[in-house]
């Protein structure tokens, strides 16, 4: 039987996705483990999809969160890479088989037995809960070092959003020659980081969007070279066949045909968003233009550490709105409406600790939200 220790966070208990205070347990720190006191946790669009069961795979109760930065408070006897007091990160995955072809290629994220940080089970069948909580215990092989100079709060979203855009840039050859033209479809949590990383790789970056609302900030603040509004038929016509690559970050249902038209011959469209409904894939522009469409999801542990070092070197962080844990439900409502510039991050250490159980109980009973315990 695995020894357990108490933990506290906020969980969704059903498809309403409403998060409320939740007592649960973590395993005790093992010989290969690192125990992390959580300081900050980013709010990913996947968190929203999961708590509302948009993908049909949710198992409640769920403590979301896989963009975790904290302090190592305990390390196992076999752990040499980390010590108590180190600033560390935990991303989307916390385990894999470590012996398959993908794992042997440092692609643990594609392992058939990959273990996700939340909404999953470990090998001992215990449920894994994420970073909207005070503490997490993780195998050291899935813990990352946060480089000096990378802030804990604005650096947290890099653990999902950052690696999600970095990995396809490397794999699909976007970094091999500077000056190539990259289109970034959608300027949200993923898109704004894609602009920053693309520019750091020497790419010419155009943001593609349905409206001009974010044009000035895309160019003046994020550093994009140009901005293309898809509803402007003349500008879309002028942009036909001008892009070498497009990273599509949009997670809502949308047409792919207009994006294919923007690509040069042999251009590549890489999709990162996960819409609830399947998208139509037109064959004619692919065949007649020798164009490619591919996908990508996060990266392995080695590449994720490489990405963190790259971002620290180039001063790349997410643009964030820091929130308290008690603000999470309103933040989720805003996230569903794309009303955030550009990533919510929860100040876990300063908002979970300062709210006593009595205060939480009084506040949330008044709002009809129940407090749940699972041990």
From TrEMBL:
Belongs to the zinc-containing alcohol dehydrogenase family. PANTHER family: ALDEHYDE REDUCTASE. This is GroES-like superfamily. Residues 17-346 form the Enoyl reductase (ER) domain. SMART domains: PKS_ER (SM00829). One of its GO terms (biological process) is lignin biosynthetic process. GO terms for molecular function: oxidoreductase activity, acting on the CH-OH group of donors, NAD or NADP as acceptor; zinc ion binding. Keywords: Metal-binding, Oxidoreductase, Zinc. Homodimer. Pfam families: ADH_N (PF08240), ADH_zinc_N (PF00107).
